[in-house]
TrEMBL record:
Protein name (record): RNase H type-1 domain-containing protein
Record domain RNase H type-1: where: 12-132
Alphabetized Gene3D superfamilies for the sequence: Ribonuclease H-like superfamily/Ribonuclease H
Molecular functions (GO terms): nucleic acid binding; RNA-DNA hybrid ribonuclease activity
Highest taxon listed in the record's lineage: Eukaryota
PANTHER family named in the record: BNAC02G40300D PROTEIN (PTHR47074), POLYNUCLEOTIDYL TRANSFERASE, RIBONUCLEASE H-LIKE SUPERFAMILY PROTEIN (PTHR47074:SF48)
Organism: Dipteronia dyeriana
Length: 159
């Protein structure tokens, strides 16, 4: 994973779906160009979104998190290739997915944000946070992230 240029923040997002309980865990992590964690967030939703809507909603939350925190300009990365490709295309998506994609494209144009795909193995920290969200309903804000994630974050930086 190549770090962003100085002054550009990296946001990684991921969603985990637990079909048995109709839960979605969302994880976001923001780093500076040196790889230092600046903020992270987890949230759990009780809903039955499709995987594409869940991932798109997570990308939207990551964008809103960056905007609200003033962490711009940024590159947002997701391991949901189909959703990232849909965002980058000029195709119209319909129903619930289309509404979320429209909001993402609007924010992307309004703020200095690019969105790109990265592999799951390079997105371990956000994935681990999304799984954590299914267990606990907590937010870390700008507090130091749990020590259990130190090795996962380091793996992401080295990938």
């Amino acid at each position: 994973m190549v770090p962003p240029l100085a002054g550009i923040f990296r946001i990684n997002t991921d969603a985990t779906i637990q079909d048995s309980n109709q839960l979605i865990g969302v994880g976001e992590i923001v780093r500076d160009s040196g790889g230092q964690v600046l903020a992270s967030s987890v949230q759990r939703f009780s809903t039955c979104f499709s995987p594409h809507v869940a991932e798109a909603t997570t990308i939207l939350r990551g964008l809103l998190f960056a905007v609200d925190s003033g962490l711009l300009p940024a590159v947002l990365e997701s391991d949901a290739r189909w959703v990232v490709d849909l965002i980058d295309s000029n195709e119209t998506a319909f129903a619930d997915l289309g509404v979320v994609i429209c909001d993402i494209v609007s924010l992307k144009k309004q703020f200095d944000v690019s969105i790109s795909f990265l592999s799951r193995c390079a997105n371990k920290a956000a994935h681990s946070l999304s799984k954590l969200a299914l267990k606990w309903m907590i937010s870390f804000g700008s507090s130091p992230i749990l020590l259990a994630f130190d090795s996962v974050i380091l793996d992401d930086c080295l990938a």
